[in-house]
Design brief:
Strand order of the largest sheet: 3-2-1-4-5-7-6
Number of helices: 12
Number of strands: 7
Distance between the termini: 132 Å
Order of helices and strands: HHHHHEHEHEHHEHEHEEH
Structural class: alpha/beta
Radius of gyration: 34 Å
Strand content: 5-15%
Largest sheet: 7 strands, mixed
Helix content: 40-55%
Length: 296
Amino acid sequence: MRTKSQSSVNLKVIFTCCSILIFLVIFFARSNISSSKPISKTNLSQEKEEENQATPEGCPTTQQCTKLPISLSDALVHYATSNVTPQQTFDEISVSKRVLDKKSPSNFLVFGLGHDSPMWASLNHGGRTLFIEEDKAWIEIVTKKFPSLEAYHVVYDTKVKHSDKMMELGRSEECRSVTDPRNSKCELSLKDFPADFYETKWDLIMVDAPTGYHEEAPGRMSAIYTAGLLARNREDGETDVFVHDVNRPVEDEFSATFLCKGYMREQNGRLRHFTIPSHRARGGRPFCPVDVNRRR
């Protein structure tokens, strides 16, 4: 039988050992917490920043960013399996492509929906490419095959056989005034198109429509004039305008007159390239720049 003094000593020893054990447990627990990475607002933001660097902006996942865009894959399959030749030659297309290489993604307005439309949309990947087309049935055929293409149906009330008269009208003061085409008093201006046509700041405009190869066709008189007006009426910057089929009288004369020889940068084959600055950004600009050759 143990005495009272022995029991008291044993209790003290047990109490001391338990205290030391609890101290060691607390000590090691704190050490582990301090050595681990603290969860703070700063570290969370750093982790988020690292994730953003790993995944390009605007991409939910890296896989989605490296995946070939549908519009581009559709175009590749189309041109690899089609025997149809695009409306423009390789050299002509290269003129516009060089500008798109610098400006895309951009706002690109194209008069005409054709066999080359998937190509233009693909070259402007990430931007907006809007096609303006006169043939409603053709729009349905093309957009059914290429659902990603954006196209508007429009109606022209002009004819190629009236082009001489329209050229005379275009020389009036009303047609030299820079304003929103919807408010223009010039009879050449296209006024009844969708609102997007007028309210978007177009970086590039391609005039390759409407039909213009016979006397009863709408012709491109108003399309060329309005393209120039859209470019001049933008708030700032400049617009690259391309006109195809300049081997024909209407495209030749109207582009030289209303897009101006002084703004022409290049002609390759049947394609002309003009760069037209905003006339609103700097008041007092003449409709066409002064011809340097005439001043000599």
